[in-house]
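Support reply, case 0932

Customer input (verbatim):
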Amino acid sequence: MNADEHRLNKTAKENLAIAVFVLLCGVICAKSVFAADDVKQEKPVARLTVNAGNVERVDTPVTVELPGGISGAEIRLVEIRDGNRVPVPSQSEKNEKGKSLSWILSGKTPPAVKRVYEIEKGKTAEGPGIDINDNDAALEVLCGGNPVLRYKYGVEPPPAGKAADYAKSGFIHPVWSPAGQVLTQIHPEDHIHHMGLWNAWTATEFEGRHVDFWNIRDKKGTVRFAKCLEKSKGPVFGGFKVLQEYVDLSAPGGARIALNDNLEVRVWNISGAGKGYWLFDWVSVQHCASSSPLHLLQYRYGGLGFRATTEWGINNSDYLTSEGKTRKDGHTTRARW
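Our regenerated output:
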């Protein structure tokens, strides 16, 4: 990969995927044994075995593909635990392969431990889940009735006395803690263009022009909400998919869309605020909007940004990466999270 630039091309075989705002370990897949004939018989449709692997799992989402002929609306999940059949909330959805079933590997699962589940006919276990509210300007996602995050698709005006160019859509704010504290901020006095949880490239080249989608005060570029693609809610997960546009404001003849950003945010139901943490995924898949490539030039910051509350500072907060690096030595290093 060229050290000076990365190239996004519309005909590239792989899409750029930016994932994920990590609070816990991510989704794992279950090993399954399906019997097609079982669907018509009065016995389990399938038995699933989930192996924790070599690490401890904590409230981990699990997803398994369902074979054709199984309707997610007509099945439920139970865990075989100490000889008992314990109902487990589950949720199905359509995808490119057909249908999948998801649930939470609840609690702590020690390394190498296997947990056994069965899919059977019936109604899925009920319980407080993930809901989403749309107030015509923002999408607010809740877990067990408690707000987790809010995505602003309406245009947020700049603070009083600031340039109109700071108006912005397509960002998340607030992100709340389980106790209800706001963990993000927008339009901070020292960086008016910072917007809670957002995504923008800083140093790019598009059709020979250098475009900055991050520092919108330069009036060269911005990222904006285009349309909502999907909203979901249910006992296991909920959230939204939206289309965002990276707009070159410096193009001759007027604004020109350089990049389409398909953003999916999914909140997982890990049993409400009582756990003391939320779990959600941020997945961004980006494509060039035309035959013109967008070059991402090497730069010290850009992409996914998180502007924290003003109450966090060097004396009461810290950072840790998967490689064991902190605030002191983590800058400009690579990490899985």
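We compared this against your earlier run and they match. Two observations from our side: Residues 5-24+128-306 form one domain. The first strand starts at residue 5 and ends at 8. Please reopen the case if you see a mismatch on your end.
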